[in-house]
Amino acid sequence: MLTTNSTLLTEEKHKKEQEPIDFLLTKITDRDHKQLEFIQAVEEVFTDIKDFYYKNTEYQKAKILDRIVEPERVIIFRVPWVDDQGEVQVNRGFRVQFNSAIGPVKGGLRFHPSVNLGIIKFLGFEQIFKNALTGLQIGGGKGGADFDPKGKSDGEVMRFCQSFMTELFRHIGPNTDVPAGDIGVGSREIGFLFGQYKRIMNEFNGALTGKGINWGGSLIRPEATGYGSVYFAIEMLKIRDETIEGKTCIVSGSGNVAQYTVEKIIEFGGKVVTLSDSNGFIYDPNGIDHEKLEFVKWIKNTARGRISEYKEKYHDVEYTDTYLTPDYNPLWDIKADLAFPSATQNEINGKDAENMCKRGIYLISEGANMPCSMEAIKIFKENKILHAPGKAANAGGVAVSGLEMSQNSIRLNWTHEEVDHRLQQIMKNIHAKCLQYGLEGSYCNYFKGANISSFKKVADAMLEQGVV
Ligand code: NDP
Ligand code: 2IT
């Protein structure tokens, strides 16, 4: 009782001393104190929408922010499976259905040993606003498991996916919640997940996206996130009357997003000099061309190997082990013009950000979700770097997932050109929305623009739908 009373007293004290948004953040921080990434994502959005929120008193009256930070539903489940040695393994599965105000819940599944509730909640929270920016009717959510696909056989991955879906199937559906891929979940995993879903449901429908092209998938979905991130950078450069041609670019990651980011940069005449994975990065001063990129795709997607193998095949390449420098990543200390972080959250800290500014980076298009720490974001803003948040720059992936849902509904497949055209248009529209709400003099604060524009859309829908 004593604890409850003192907690209430502390709450009362905070309420009197703090503005409503700060009070809410304190409440979340107290209640979900272990969910660091979630708190970070919430703080980032709150910082940008604060003034807008206070000006629109109807939002406050309807407690929109208090409701938006609370997922509609959180599902946590056991995923038992048997490995190739016949040993029973148990993982933890998650699906966070965060917000369905503007459409069925939509968002990827992440399979990575680091997955926990805080990470899935941060990704689901970001997804609400990202999906709103696409202009499509999709709500936000995310899921995954602390399963590590690395080093597992295809049979083990299949059995894991089947067990995962044996619980997930009852929570998803084309009009309810439509999962897709993310880290560790690509076409192989979506195939196994869809196969099991269809078997249990006895129904072929669009409850998953990222499907194979012969069984309900969309052209350009595998490419969409990386291509979209480059299309967004092109829009940002246009403001300075510049193009990608001749620009030196650093890209992190070497998975789905990184690969298609490199492909598009090459197509537009840029030079990509880095790629990475969780062990280290390669620096190729001659640039990664189409042939080298095909080799990277083979290493990562077929052989499921490491980026260090690139150095074994090509000359004049440096490989740096990033375990040796845990406080900063020397990848971000390479001289270049444009940066495309495309690996994971918080891969750029304050020191990295300072290095990037010193080394001449003036544009960042986030392929990954929340790759920059709060300190890094602040440093980029102070240095007037053109900096697009993941919710804007990497929205191309979920946007084409949304187009896959549309094609499934009408049981038709659009052409390569048609999907690519729609993707480009969506990225242009997102850029325009950022400008509409993010201009600070001649500088565009893309974070502010993306956060206010998307928050307004979701908040207005929530207002109109009553207290639910
Ligand atoms: P992949 O699994 O295809 O690739 C992930 C890449 O990031 C790998 O190179 C991986 O290296 C590296 N990586 C993962 N975790 C870490 C870590 N802790 N430290 C360093 N490197 C790491 O995933 P995607 O390319 O799909 O996803 C990359 C990012 O893009 C994620 O932030 C994801 O949320 C985001 N994203 C993805 C979309 C999609 O459509 N796939 C859409 C929008 C955003 P390693 O092989 O060593 O694990
Ligand atoms: O972070 C993301 O936007 C994704 N992983 C893609 C989600 C999707 O539903 O395509």
Layout of SSEs?
Layout lengths: L1 H16 L2 H12 L4 H20 L1 H5 L2 H5 L4 E10 L5 E12 L5 E7 L5 H17 L5 E7 L8 H15 L8 E4 L6 H15 L19 H18 L9 E4 L4 H12 L3 E2 L1 E3 L3 E4 L6 H13 L6 H5 L4 E4 L16 E3 L9 H9 L4 E3 L8 H9 L3 E3 L1 H4 L1 H16 L5 H23 E2 L2 E2 L1 H19 L4
Parallel strand pairs: 3-4, 3-5, 6-7, 6-11, 11-12, 12-13
Antiparallel strand pairs: 1-2, 2-4, 8-9, 9-10, 14-15
Helix pairs in contact: 1-2, 2-3, 3-6, 3-18, 6-18, 7-8, 9-10, 9-16, 9-17, 10-11, 13-14, 16-17, 17-18
Bound molecules: NADPH dihydro-nicotinamide-adenine-dinucleotide phosphate and (2Z)-2-iminopentanedioic acid.
Give a nutshell description of this structure:
This protein is α/β, with parallel strands linked by helices and 468 residues long. Helices cover 50% and strands 15% of the residues. The strands form four sheets. It has a five-stranded mixed sheet, with helices on both faces. A five-stranded parallel sheet has the order 7-6-11-12-13, with helices on both faces. Strands 8-9-10 form a three-stranded antiparallel sheet, with no helix packed on it.
CATH architecture of the largest domain: 3-Layer(aba) Sandwich
Overall pLDDT score: 96
Number of domains: 3
Strand order of the largest sheet: 1-2-4-3-5
What CATH calls the topology of the largest domain is Rossmann fold
C-alpha Rg (nearest Å): 22 Å
β-strand number: 15
β-sheet strand percentage: 5-15%
CATH homologous superfamily heading of the largest domain = NAD(P)-binding Rossmann-like Domain
CATH class of the largest domain: Alpha Beta
- Indicate the low-confidence ranges by residue numbers: none
What overall geometry do the principal axes of the alpha carbons give? globular
Number of helices: 18
